[in-house]
């Protein structure tokens, strides 16, 4: 019998739940089509489900017809995108995660103090591009400790840092330490401002790694936090696989394996996790238990347009 341990917490965070429900409420209230700039969250299954119900996902606002109701994704957008929507008089509903919006506000506050801002994050990620576009003045993107050594700034005494929300305290600790060592006057948000969901899910995977032979992470390839969960499993020395759903399972992975840990990225729905359990049952009998873990009860308010 294969022993399967489910991570706790796993799957949807409050920001993702809110963003998806904003699209669902908009479809019910206003009717399709509803245009969404970029994927509302980084999960293929969620996006396909909303697409079938009348959501149309576009890369740029230029693809949105005049007057069409438009939603900004959970990752946030640059000020220029907001201005373009206003100039075109598009009726916009902003589904930006409140924790991402908090980073935007921090960055703008630091910039208003005359500081250059260092953003710790992944180049090309939608959230990072939105944050850079929300902060006036110079924003330096750093991804590694080595990037810190190469930073060229106007005034080392006038620096601040913010972080991408899908990075945890553990992900950023080394980079922040390098920034503080090189620029002793740098300021930044308190550790408690780091996204709670990212930290909780990573901690759960570390606990899984102490108890199982192999780890499965349910999530899409373009999900930053899902990729990081898989990387943590690998760092713990456990074979770890990022899968979209049960169709990705390979029976060869489980040869000689007696215990499997299953988790899901913050944008992966629970139905996919249950589908993976069904997929594992196709290989043989399983026994499922759930880790003791943090019970999340965070909820965010909805925008007035769909409240």
Can you tell me about this structure?
This protein has 307 residues and is an alpha/beta fold. The protein has three domains: 2-12 and 196-290, Cobalt-precorrin-4 Transmethylase, domain 1 (3-Layer(aba) Sandwich); 14-97, Rossmann fold; 99-193, 4-hydroxy-3-methylbut-2-enyl diphosphate reductase, catalytic domain (Cobalt-precorrin-4 Transmethylase, domain 1, 3-Layer(aba) Sandwich), CATH 3.40.1010. Helix content is 38%, strand content 17%. The chain contains ten helices and twelve strands. It has a five-stranded parallel sheet with strand order 10-9-11-1-12, with helices on both faces. A four-stranded parallel sheet has the order 3-2-4-5. The longest helix has 17 residues, at 14-30. It is flat, with a radius of gyration of 21 Å. It starts with a strand and ends in a 17-residue tail after the last strand.
Question: Which terms would index this structure?
Answer:
five-stranded parallel beta sheet; Cobalt-precorrin-4 Transmethylase, domain 1; 307 residues; four-stranded parallel beta sheet; Rossmann fold; 10 helices; alpha/beta
């Amino acid at each position: 019998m294969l022993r399967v341990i489910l991570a706790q917490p796993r799957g949807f965070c409050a920001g993702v739940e809110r963003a998806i429900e904003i699209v669902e409420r908009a479809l019910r209230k206003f009717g399709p089509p509803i245009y969404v700039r970029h994927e509302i969250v980084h999960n293929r299954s969620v996006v396909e489900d909303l697409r079938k119900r009348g959501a149309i996902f576009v890369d740029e606002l230029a693809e949105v017809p005049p007057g069409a109701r438009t939603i900004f994704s959970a990752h946030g957008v640059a000020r220029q995108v907001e201005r373009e929507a206003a100039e075109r008089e598009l009726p916009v509903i902003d589904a930006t995660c409140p924790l991402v919006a908090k980073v935007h506000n921090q960055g703008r506050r630091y910039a208003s103090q005359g500081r250059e801002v260092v953003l710790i994050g992944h180049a090309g990620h939608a959230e990072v591009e939105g944050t850079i576009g929300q902060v006036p003045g110079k924003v330096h993107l750093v991804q590694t400790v080595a990037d810190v050594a190469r930073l060229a700034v106007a005034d080392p005494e006038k620096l601040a840092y913010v972080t991408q929300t899908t990075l945890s305290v553990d992900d950023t600790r080394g980079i922040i330490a390098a920034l503080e060592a090189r620029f002793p006057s740098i300021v930044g948000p308190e550790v408690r401002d780091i996204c709670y969901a990212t930290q909780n899910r990573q901690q759960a995977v570390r606990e899984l790694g102490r108890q199982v032979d192999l780890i499965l992470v349910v999530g899409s390839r373009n999900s930053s936090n899902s990729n990081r969960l898989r990387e943590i499993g690998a760092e713990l020395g456990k074979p770890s696989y990022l899968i979209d759903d049960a169709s990705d399972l390979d029976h060869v992975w489980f040869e000689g394996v007696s215990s499997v840990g299953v988790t899901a990225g913050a944008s992966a729905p629970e139905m996919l996790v249950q589908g993976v359990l069904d997929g594992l049952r196709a290989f043989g009998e399983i026994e499922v238990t759930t880790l003791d873990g943090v019970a999340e009860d965070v909820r965010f308010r909805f925008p007035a347009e769909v409240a």
